[in-house]
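Ticket closed. Logging final result for Cyclin.
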Amino acid sequence: MDAAVAGGEISQQTKPPPPELAMVARAVQRLVTRNDAVVAVTVSSGGGGGEREEGMAAFEAAKGAPAPRIGVAQYLERVHRYAGLEPECYVVAYAYVDMAAHRRPAAAVASRNVHRLLLACLLVASKVLDDFHHNNAFFARVGGVSNAEMNKLELELLAVLEFEVSVSHRVYELYRAHLEKESRRDCGGGGGGLLVGGAAERPERSAVDGGDRRTPNGSVALDWMRSQAMTTTTTTAAANGVRRHSSSPSR
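Final structure:
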């Protein structure tokens, strides 16, 4: 068990949040706001009973419980305050959110599941990218879930992604460039599109081939990008000297 977790205490990090955190927070929050509105309309019209797909239901808040009140940006800042993740982890976590939404299009990323989904994505991204990473018990305490639930969330995410969690450098740069573009758009007050989210402007075809096909989740199905991103974990990770991903619950 990490020293920071031992004795029931976790220490705060001193380094400020990286710009990648803010970019991801804005992109995901916009998606959540849009999908919350869609869910509200669906429920009010008497629908919405069968949208929970296997593999994503685990990220939902308990039945009857309200969605967490903390916003996406505040939640990511809390994780960073204690975990001190590298900037790349936030971009890769965003890629996982996009891939998960593409694979489970009926399970919209919304207020009731976004916090647990992001926590699992950050945990897996940290394990894939960092030689030394915090264990599941640490992430559970920081994220406000039990250790058993953290382990379950990790396994559910891996099942959704089919354990294909390696992201190539080219795809990483495409995701980061997209986040930067949308961040500049936000600063200019122009809104903008998302890889996962509403009526988005299509990325340039020089970067994405045929990226204008819409999916039921309201996302732009960037099949070329995702096919590049979803390379086999065991082969790519071994080639890069990265340990094969495995669940690492606290003993």
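The radius of gyration is 17 Å. No further action required.
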